[in-house]
Amino acid sequence: MKSQEIRAKFLEFFKEKSHKIVPSAPMVIKDDPTLMFTNAGMNQFKEFFLGNSVPKYNRVADTQKCLRVSGKHNDLEEVGKDTYHHTMFEMLGNWSFGDYFKAEAIAWAWEFLTEVCKIEKDSLYVTVFEGSKDADQLGQDTEALELWSKIVAKDRILFGNKKDNFWEMGDQGPCGPCSEIHVDIRSAQEKAKVSGAALVNQDHPQVVEIWNLVFMQYNRKANGQLEALPSKHVDTGMGFERLCMVMQGVQSNYDTDVFTPIIREIETITNTKYGKDEDINIAIRVIADHIRAVSFSIADGQLPSNTGAGYVIRRILRRAIRYGFTFLNTKEPFMFLLVKVLSETMGKSFPELKDQRQLIENVVKEEEHSFLKTIGFGITELQKQIDLIKLSKKDINASKQESDEAKITGGMAFYLYDTCGFPLDLTELIAEENGLAVNIEGFNKLMQQQKDRSRSASEVSKEDWIVLAEDPHQEFVGYDNLETSVKIVKYRKV
Ligand code: ATP
Ligand code: MG
Ligand code: MG
Ligand code: MG
């Protein structure tokens, strides 16, 4: 089944169950100082859950453009290295605002996966909240357990802790237990060797979480205590690309038709082959993923820049350019050429890609152009040091001194990283080509100093939302980048 059809099936299924199908909210959030990018389907419904506004429909379903590159949901470092986390992905979801609860949510999720998608029941596992012994003293989610027990074999129901099976919006607000559905797509032979149950939530690329059903039934008060919510809600989220992987019988999200047209285009442009060499594979996956994140952001009106959300987007694009530069030997702008295929494959569901194609191409091309120039400048600077070291190596014969000298200084590596946007591996690669090493210790020391400086000035967000503290002596200081990942900097006391 083509990805287009899979998306349509999901929406159709919930439409038949009286859900209003609503459009995806923008991925870039403009009117919420506490969240820069949509990172889950429920973001756009937050005010309903908080009781601040009343929904027009009490059953809703959609596919939501999400970006997970900061705060509690920061998957950036996984992207490209694994085969099932993206920066930008679609989250399919269905919601009940004070209408149906666990019984329907569980029964429908199971019906959709096993009857509509025809996923074999014995490749699915479900998880149930086991309860907690901490201050909350929550019991097991026996309600969900009973409901699942009616439809799922006992050995396929697993218990999960608070980290995996209890969802909270933030320090305060609606929260509740959740049930996740995981799928095991390994071969029968592999399954016979190790039970899938042992691999759930273990970062196994073929035993992955596909759907999370959250049952909001509590409200966490400012003093940390839980109280029952007057009306209960359902919030579910399913990874669309992961569902496509399962439905299309492939082993990686990147082997689905969501990604293959982009990957084929990268192969053609860069004259490389996906699937042969792991470094090249990672680079291709990073580029295929990041062009989506960047294109969707620009289509939402967020251009790369040096501050806020724009800076996050610039970093993502530069990360992809660097991977291309290092592993695919791309020395000229090329990512802008991928926008055409992307808008052809996804433009039907997200017309903004088609409408804004020209703009996206121009912006990406310009960014590539200027960043490649920076890389060029960095390389010249690095080459100067390499030449100096080589010269002094000729003069110095004392072997001890020679080994100390024959390293790119930590200061140079840090300068290249901090000012020119060079990742350490790029500096190492160039050094290696010249028979030199890099003083990693020195680099790490400078990096640590920079981190300490940022940390003392900020806090790092762990939650979905930052609850605005009632302290007037605070100002929003935006996002900050630490290492290659992007972390959110909250409010700084002034
Ligand atoms: P995981 O444990 O795999 O990181 P999660 O528990 O963080 O997933 P949820 O917050 O529960 O994910 O989001 C709901 C669903 O969205 C997940 O079940 C998964 O299918 C999908 N999903 C989450 N993060 C990503 C991502 N980075 N890329 C693609 N799909 C994702
Ligand atoms: Mg996650
Ligand atoms: Mg999870
Ligand atoms: Mg989850």
Automatic annotation (TrEMBL):
Keywords: Aminoacyl-tRNA synthetase, ATP-binding, Coiled coil, Cytoplasm, Ligase, Metal-binding, Nucleotide-binding, Protein biosynthesis, RNA-binding, tRNA-binding, Zinc. GO terms for cellular component: cytoplasm. It catalyses: tRNA(Ala) + L-alanine + ATP = L-alanyl-tRNA(Ala) + AMP + diphosphate. It comes from the Bacteria. One of its GO terms (molecular function) is zinc ion binding. One of its GO terms (biological process) is alanyl-tRNA aminoacylation. Binds 1 zinc ion per subunit. Residues 1-494 form the Alanyl-transfer RNA synthetases family profile domain. The keyword Repressor does not apply. Its cofactor is Zn(2+). It is an enzyme of class 6 (ligase). Its EC number is 6.1.1.7. It is found in: Cytoplasm. Catalyzes the attachment of alanine to tRNA(Ala) in a two-step reaction: alanine is first activated by ATP to form Ala-AMP and then transferred to the acceptor end of tRNA(Ala). Also edits incorrectly charged Ser-tRNA(Ala) and Gly-tRNA(Ala) via its editing domain. Consists of three domains; the N-terminal catalytic domain, the editing domain and the C-terminal C-Ala domain. The editing domain removes incorrectly charged amino acids, while the C-Ala domain, along with tRNA(Ala), serves as a bridge to cooperatively bring together the editing and aminoacylation centers thus stimulating deacylation of misacylated tRNAs. Belongs to the class-II aminoacyl-tRNA synthetase family. This is Alanine--tRNA ligase. It comes from Arenibacter troitsensis. The gene is alaS. The chain holds residues 1 to 494 of 885 of the full protein.
